[in-house]
Amino acid sequence: MKKILIADDHQLVIDGIKLMLSTETDLECVADAHSGQEVLDYLQNKPVDMVILDINMPDLNGVETCRILQRDYPEVKVLALSMLKEASLIKLMLKNGAHAYVLKHAGKEEVIQAIRKVFAGQNYYSEEVSEIIMASLAGQSTKEKPQSPFPQLSRREKQVLRLIVDEFTTAEIAEKLHISFGTVETHRRNILIKLGARNTAGLVRTAIEYGLLED
Questions:
Q1: How far apart are CA 151 and CA 164, in angstroms?
Q2: Domains delineated in the chain
Q3: Is a pLDDT exceeding 80 seen at residue 132?
Q4: CA angle, corner 59, sides to 114 and 118, nearest 5?
Q5: Alpha helix ranges (H) inside the chain
Q6: Locate the Response regulatory domain: which residues (predicted)?
């Protein structure tokens, strides 16, 4: 029986995956977590064979959690399950040790197939994820400029980051860019993940140190 831990900050997602696994006689969900830190706390005392890992989580995001799992628990398989489709984030998860990357709109058959392929020693990527990776690699081959050590920020993320550096509040950023408060917070979380920062001070320091706001 393969033991699986599900990590996602939405209980509805956790419950859905548990339901998928309940019909599989050789797969068992032994625990769930709502943050990366909860995953690490659990593994200190009890082993699992796989972690199904979301990226956008509080306290410790999936990208950093994946890196720590590869370093401290290399025997644990990691299946990334996320709604995020940006090439830079996908490649960062794979670089940090994820064995599979599946999009959250996948059906039960695909999720189970991904789990079984990983346990068979293979990698698995959703078809759309594979296309995103290939398109990104094709685009890189035409660029002469060396890559940044961080995943590329979108135009909107750069706008938000610039305003954060200029000490605008979330409400002020939302008003200035004509977007919702929640959208600003989503951009902020994604920027934190991409830059590997833990808080706003870390964002500002990294942005200035690496010249991320330069055109």
A1: 18
A2: 2-137 (3.40.50.2300), 155-209 (1.10.10.10)
A3: yes
A4: 15
A5: 11-21, 36-43, 62-72, 87-95, 108-119, 127-140, 155-165, 170-177, 181-195, 200-209
A6: 3-119
pLDDT confidence of residue 148: 58
Q: Which amino acid is at 98?
A: A
Q: Whose CA is closest to 152, among 61, 94, 203, 87? A: 87
pTM attached to this predicted model = 0.72
How many angstroms from the chain centroid is the CA of residue 204?
21
Q: Please say whether the beta carbons of 68 and 40 come within 8 A.
A: yes
Paired strand residues for 80: 53, 101
Q: Is the pLDDT of residue 61 over 50?
A: yes
User: 139 pLDDT band (50/70/90 cuts)?
Assistant: low
Residue whose token pair is 């759309």: 128
Angle at 12 between CA 84 and CA 65, to 5 degrees: 50
In this prediction, residue 60 carries a pLDDT of 86
Q: What is the pLDDT of residues 150-176, one digit of tens each?
A: 778 888 999 999 898 888 999 999 999
**Confidence category of residue 31, pLDDT binned at 50, 70, 90:** very high
> How many CB atoms sit inside 10 A of residue 99's CB?
23
